[in-house]
From TrEMBL:
Lineage top rank: taxon: Bacteria
Keywords of this entry: FAD, Flavoprotein, Oxidoreductase
Pfam families noted in UniProt: FAD_binding_5 (PF00941)
Key word Cell cycle present: no
Organism: Pseudonocardia ammonioxydans
Protein name as catalogued: Carbon-monoxide dehydrogenase medium subunit
Gene3D superfamilies associated with the record: 3.30.465.10, Uridine Diphospho-n-acetylenolpyruvylglucosamine Reductase, domain 2
GO MF annotation: an example: oxidoreductase activity
UniProt xrefs under InterPro entries: CO_DH_flav_C (IPR005107), CO_DH_flav_C_dom_sf (IPR036683), Diverse_Substr_Oxidored (IPR051312), FAD-bd_PCMH (IPR016166), FAD-bd_PCMH-like_sf (IPR036318), FAD-bd_PCMH_sub1 (IPR016167), FAD-bd_PCMH_sub2 (IPR016169), Mopterin_DH_FAD-bd (IPR002346)
Location of the FAD-binding PCMH-type domain: 1-182
C-alpha cells in the first residue's frame, strides 16, 4: 500500500523544524527520523500527515557524548538521531553498557541501522526498549519548541498508548542518562526474533527498581520491587485476544527473575575482568 499524499520539507536546523511544525500545525505535520515506524504507519494509512518534516539532515542531532558531572558521575547524552545500531556498537563504559546490550532486542539489523533513539522515544510503544530503558534509568528527554528547550523526566513523559508529554511543535533533541547503572539488564520474550516483545523486563540492582513492558499502556516502573512472584501478582492484567492475562503474568515473573540474574552476572563478568 502507498501513503496518502503529503508535502515533503527538509529541515536545516532544529529551529527550522520547530518553525515548520508551528507554521503547518493545522495540517498535521510529522517529523521524519529513521522512518521505521512512521513510514510503515503511513503505508497502512494509520498515519496521514499532510506534511513530513525531515530532520535527518539537521547537523548535531546524532552522536553520543560522555561527560562527568560535578559529583564525578558519568553522564551520557544521546542525540535524538543516533541510531540503535550506533548505540549497540558504542563503548559506553560499564556505567551505561546496559544500553548497548539491550539493542540486540530492537527489531532486525536493518531496522537498528535506520531507526533512531529519538524516534523510538517519541513513538512511545509501551514495549519499545528505549522507552523501558529511559524509565528504568530515570533518563531526561530534552525537547526544543518555540519557547526554547525544556527537560522532561522519562517518568512523566509516557502518558498512554503512543502518547507522550511532547507538544506537537516540539522536537526531541537528546536523551540524557545521568545515573550510571552498572548492574542493570533488559530482557524480553517475542514470538519471533526481531518482533516487538510480548513482555519485556528490566532490572537495576542498585536502585532495586524493575520496569515492565507489555503489561500496560506505558512502561511500568516498580520501585523497591519485591520478588518476581509479588511483582507479577500485583499486575493489573486483562485477557486479550490470543494473549490470556495468566500467560503475560507468567512471562513477567520469569523475565523479572531473568533480568535480575543477567544484571548480577554482568557485574561478575566486569569484576572478573
Ligand atoms: C519490523 C519492525 C520491527 C521493529 N521492532 C522493534 C523492536 O523490537 N523494538 C523497538 O523499540 N522498535 C522496533 N521497531 C521500530 C523501530 O525501533 C523504529 O526505529 C522506532 O520505533 C522509531 O524510530 P524512527 O527513527 O524510525 O522514527 P520515525 O519512524 O521516523 O518516527 C516515529 C515517530 O516519532 C516522531 N519523531 C521522530 N523523531 C522525533 C524527534 N526527534 N522528536 C520528536 N518526534 C520525533 C515521528 O514524527 C513519528 O511520529 C520495529 C520496526 C519494524 C518495521
Amino acid at each position: 500500500m502507498k501513503p496518502a499524499t503529503f508535502t515533503y520539507h527538509r529541515a536545516s536546523s532544529v529551529r527550522d523544524a520547530v518553525g515548520l511544525l508551528s507554521e503547518l500545525a493545522e495540517e498535521e505535520p510529522k517529523l521524519l527520523a529513521g522512518g521505521q515506524s512512521l513510514v510503515a504507519m503511513m503505508n497502512y494509512r494509520m498515519a496521514r500527515p499532510g506534511h513530513l518534516v525531515d530532520i535527518t539532515h539537521v547537523p548535531g542531532l546524532a552522536g553520543i557524548r560522555r561527560s562527568t558531572g560535578d559529583d564525578g558521575r558519568a553522564i551520557l547524552r544521546i542525540g535524538a538521531l543516533t541510531t540503535h545500531r550506533a548505540v549497540e556498537k558504542a563503548d559506553l563504559g560499564p556505567e551505561f553498557a546496559v544500553l548497548s546490550r539491550a539493542m540486540r532486542w530492537v527489531g532486525h539489523l536493518p531496522i537498528r541501522t535506520r531507526g533512531t533513539v529519538g524516534g523510538s522515544i517519541a513513538h512511545a510503544d509501551a514495549t519499545a526498549e528505549w522507552c523501558l530503558l529511559a524509565v528504568l534509568l530515570d533518563a531526561r528527554i530534552v525537547a526544543e519548541g518555540p519557547a526554547g528547550r525544556r527537560e522532561i523526566g522519562a517518568g512523566e513523559f509516557f502518558l498512554g498508548p503512543f502518547t507522550t508529554a511532547l507538544e506537537p511543535d516540539e522536537v526531541i533533541v537528546e536523551i540524557v542518562f545521568d545515573r550510571p547503572a552498572p548492574r542493570a539488564a533488559l530482557t524480553e520474550y517475542a514470538d519471533r526474533r526481531g518482533d516487538f516483545a510480548v513482555v519485556a523486563a528490566g532490572a537495576d540492582l542498585d536502585t532495586g527498581s524493575v520496569v515492565l513492558g507489555g503489561v500496560a499502556t506505558v512502561p511500568q516502573l516498580v520501585r523497591a520491587a519485591g520478588t518476581p512472584d509479588e511483582i507479577a501478582d500485583a499486575l493489573d492484567l486483562r485477557d486479550e485476544p490470543g494473549v490470556p492475562a495468566a500467560y503475560r503474568r507468567g512471562l513477567a515473573r520469569t523475565l523479572v527473575a531473568r533480568a535480575r540474574a543477567e544484571a548480577a552476572a554482568t557485574t561478575e563478568e566486569d569484576s572478573n575482568g
